[in-house]
Design brief:
alpha/beta; globular; 10 helices; four-stranded antiparallel sheet; eight-stranded mixed sheet; about 30% helix
């Protein structure tokens, strides 16, 4: 049996736009083991959601293009599968919880019909069987009075309840792999904690693998086993969650950690990362982080550092480790 349920090997994704070409993912490589929760973190615009959609093969072509690389799921290259094979794979093997339920759920169909449609298509259930399963799923994710909510529409649910519906839909066909794309971003802090605990319990209950995409390192500390840090289309650091927090090896990761409020530090101010994420239509040469980096050297301006192992199981892409 393949130990890694997912392997991304040197993946590059580019969008051909009227203004020019935009490379959203540049040479990314990482893997996710069975039963592992992998956190993918970085500022908005880093390429996290494009990574998720690339795994699901949901990149629109055109304008998108998979320039190079492979995505292996259970040892099979998904880019060699037919459209019919991918449709069968989505939901039944790998599922995704999208960032904004109001965009992902159809407002003109009831919640029950949207979840049951996946069950009837992928699991071959009839209408009665599908409705019975939908009630079970809604109850599983904590929707009150699930039997009476089958005929409710999306706008009749609160933000937290919509996210629960999205999770129920993702779990409907018993997938072995789940991608959660910032599922708690639009929710208040108390509801975020409830949704996070719900996702963790579902992962443990069904022994699933998970990619958790977020810009919140506090969420990562709570939920993830391994962390990949993205910046401007590149993976710049990769290690266990414990190692990332205890011993960050890339200046960008250090900056992200310094911008988190800490109860164990007697300081009234956070330390933000200076500047903004670079313009991806016209990125800087060399390391894309060098205009914002306090440790930038001449080599950083001309040569993009490769990912290298700086400690056992800890990888970083920074010229500081060449000194």
């Amino acid at each position: 049996m393949v130990d890694n349920v997912l392997e991304i090997d040197n993946l590059t994704v580019r969008f051909h736009l009227k203004r020019g070409d935009l490379t959203a993912i540049d040479g990314m490589s990482f893997s996710v083991k069975r039963g592992e929760t992998f956190g993918l973190v970085g500022e908005s615009g880093s390429g996290k959601s494009v990574t998720a959609r690339s795994i699901m093969r949901l990149i629109p072509t055109p304008p998108g293009e998979i320039v190079s690389g492979r995505v292996l799921f259970n040892g099979q290259d998904i880019y060699k599968k037919s459209d019919a094979e991918m449709r069968a794979m989505r939901g039944s093997e790998v599922a995704m919880v999208f960032q904004e339920p109001m965009s992902a759920l159809n407002p003109v169909f009831t919640v029950g019909s949207q979840i049951s449609d996946a069950l009837r298509t992928n699991m071959g259930m009839n209408k009665a069987e599908a409705n019975e399963r939908v009630v079970e799923l809604l109850q599983l994710v904590g929707i009150p009075s699930p039997g009476s909510r089958l005929d409710s529409y999306v706008h009749e649910f609160s933000g937290g309840m919509r996210q629960r519906v999205m999770l129920a839909m993702a779990l409907s066909c018993d997938p072995t792999f789940l991608i959660a794309d910032e599922p708690t971003t639009a929710l208040d802090v108390t509801i975020q904690a409830v949704i996070l605990d719900l996702i963790r319990s579902m992962i443990e209950r069904f022994n699933m693998s998970l990619i958790f995409i977020t810009h919140n390192l506090g969420v990562v500390a709570h939920a993830c086993d391994t962390v990949g840090v993205m910046y401007a289309s590149h993976l710049v650091e990769l290690a266990s969650t414990k190692e990332i927090f205890a011993n960050p090896q890339h200046p960008y990761t250090v900056g992200l950690l310094n911008s988190i409020p800490r109860l164990d530090k007697q300081t009234k101010f956070l330390t933000p990362i200076k500047g903004l994420v670079c313009n991806m239509m016209d990125p800087p040469t060399g390391c894309k982080f060098h205009p914002r980096c306090d440790h930038a050297m001449d080599i950083c301006k001309s040569i993009n550092p490769p990912m290298k192992e700086v400690a056992p199981g800890h990888f970083a892409a920074c010229h500081l480790h060449d000194m």
